[in-house]
Design brief:
It is built from 15 helices and 18 strands. With 509 residues, the protein is α/β, with parallel strands linked by helices.
């Protein structure tokens, strides 16, 4: 359910605090003073400084530059391509100009590549060809193979389908398992199937669309993710079901890197981490997915550098190899020792903020939606912070599932409170959502998702502007206090003396 029933509301005019007005009239060479000790929820959205500094012009400049980099480097910014390297150089240069000391966080990984389209064919009781990309997709890190055998459902009606060895009791050797998505990982389902002697796996989705997943590490057998309709059709075929499943793929050893930079000031043992993935898919320039998130956190980092006095250190991460299975962020979290991991107060993720047929979605930190991963404590407080901000702006928002499809996944698994914003991807907009956001019902939020058409001509600038304001507000809020998220109160006297009409030593009214 949406957080507000107000429907579409005109966007309120931005309130510019007197602090900013005075600096502008003085020539904009001064440094802003951040309001120390701001307890989230006490100040009105219009009193935040950072969202007034993160402007559409600044965002557009980054988007245009990332688009140009892709255009002149093979049409994309995919991992281990010149486009990614040049984009990383651009982000590094921009951060250095703002006073940061960005570092390359290098990692080794196994690159999975599919060499030709997968095949899923029903051979009996009647022949039926399923279309790759529409009825099913190959899961990342699927093993290669060409299997023909009986199709056997595995506890198909259960949310725990394929999650234990007991589910495969009596499973016929060489058969192809038909499994329903549910409570355990695709890696676990596939490993259980292979151990039981299955020659391949079809995992059916439990929500709309084909299941675009990963088994994380190269599997012993081929595995694809199917639509609910495809899975149901296979199960309905009964005991005479026979299938052919073919995957043509390989894995090779590679090295890539993230770009990470943090503020000079702020508590080192209470770090606010902010991330967006820098890579695109090989098929296109990836302007919504995810130059939009990259631009938003880059511009926020640049403007935050103009503010002094943050209580908490803020660390910005531009992730690599996201499109191959969230590898950059996962490697980063895996590389943290216990002490460094405990220092991270929370993680904010921004992946796709300018969808052409956009919505305003907030990650489900309360864990109320079907399909959400169990959120760590404090995630609900992040969700509420975003909800309150947009409610004060008169803008409708809706929750979106923590489905594990973006870089927050490794942080959540490590028990780090997480949250973020999303403008919608391959789900379909409803008539009700048209009332909230405008746009077209019956069409995906991003019809260009993972295609060459995800270019600068198809970015929604209104969406990017509104959601980037939320990015900036969140960063400013948690740079000052993470109290509702992890119980850590600011260590400055101003935390006890805070007034909503004051920023640092300067009165706002």
């Amino acid at each position: 359910m949406p957080t507000s029933p107000t429907g579409r509301s005109p966007r309120p005019r931005r309130h510019v605090p007197p602090t900013v007005k005075r600096l502008a009239s003085a020539g904009a060479s001064a440094t802003l003073v951040l309001g120390l000790g701001l307890a989230p929820g006490t100040a009105h959205a219009d009193e935040a400084v950072l969202p007034t500094l993160v402007t559409p012009d600044g965002l557009r400049e980054h988007i245009e530059n990332l688009s140009t980099i892709a255009e002149y480097n093979g049409g994309n910014r995919a991992t281990n391509t010149p486009g990614y390297d040049v984009a990383a150089d651009y982000v590094t240069d921009q951060l250095k100009r703002a006073g940061y000391r960005p570092k390359r966080d290098t990692y080794d990984y196994e690159l999975w590549e599919e060499h030709s389209e997968a095949v899923l064919t029903q051979l009996a009781p009647e022949k039926r060809e399923f279309a790759p990309g529409e009825d099913f997709v190959t899961m990342n890190y699927s093993g290669a193979g060409d299997a023909t055998g009986a199709g056997v459902p595995v506890d198909y009606d259960s949310t725990d389908s394929g999650c234990t060895a007991d589910d495969f009791a009596g499973f016929p050797e060489g058969a192809i398992a038909v499994i329903m998505r549910g409570s355990c990982s695709f890696q676990a389902k596939t490993a259980n199937a292979a151990e039981a002697g299955a020659a391949g796996v079809v995992v059916a989705n439990n929500v709309e669309g084909p299941l675009n997943g990963t088994v994380s590490e190269e599997s012993a057998i081929p595995v694809v993710g199917a639509t609910t309709a495809t899975g149901d059709a296979l199960v309905a075929a009964g005991d005479s079901l026979e299938l052919r499943l073919k995957v043509d793929a390989s894995v090779s050893e590679r090295t890539s890197y993230n770009i990470v930079a943090e503020t000079k000031g702020g508590a080192r043992d209470n770090v606010v981490m902010v991330g967006a993935h820098l890579d695109s898919v090989p098929e296109g320039p990836g302007i919504n997915d995810n130059a939009s998130g990259t631009a938003a956190i880059l511009e926020t980092a640049q403007q935050l550098a103009k503010l002094e006095g943050q209580n908490n250190k803020v660390r910005f991460a531009f992730w690599g190899t996201e499109e191959q299975g969230l590898i950059g962020s996962t490697k980063y979290v895996e590389g943290l020792n216990e002490r460094r991991r405990e220092r991270i107060a929370l993680y904010l993720n921004f992946d796709m903020l300018g969808s052409p047929n956009f919505g305003r979605f907030i990650y489900d930190g309360r864990g109320e939606l079907e399909g959400s991963l169990p959120p760590p404590s404090g995630s609900g407080a992040i969700q509420k912070m975003f909800e309150d901000y947009y409610e004060q702006r008169g803008l409708v928002t809706e929750p979106t599932a923590f489905s594990g499809r973006s870089d927050y996944s490794a942080f959540m698994e490590a028990g780090i409170a997480s949250g973020g914003l999303f403008s919608g991807g391959d789900a379909t907009k409803t008539e009700q959502q048209v009332e909230y956001y405008g746009g077209t019902a019956g069409q995906d939020f991003d019809p260009n998702y993972h295609t060459a058409q995800d270019d600068i001509d198809n970015i929604n600038w209104t969406s990017l502007d509104q959601l980037s304001d939320g990015v900036a507000h969140a960063v400013e809020t948690y740079a000052e206090s993470t109290l509702p998220v992890n119980g850590v109160a600011p260590r400055t006297r101003s935390a006890q003396e805070f007034r909503a009409d004051r920023v640092g030593d300067l009165w706002l009214r």
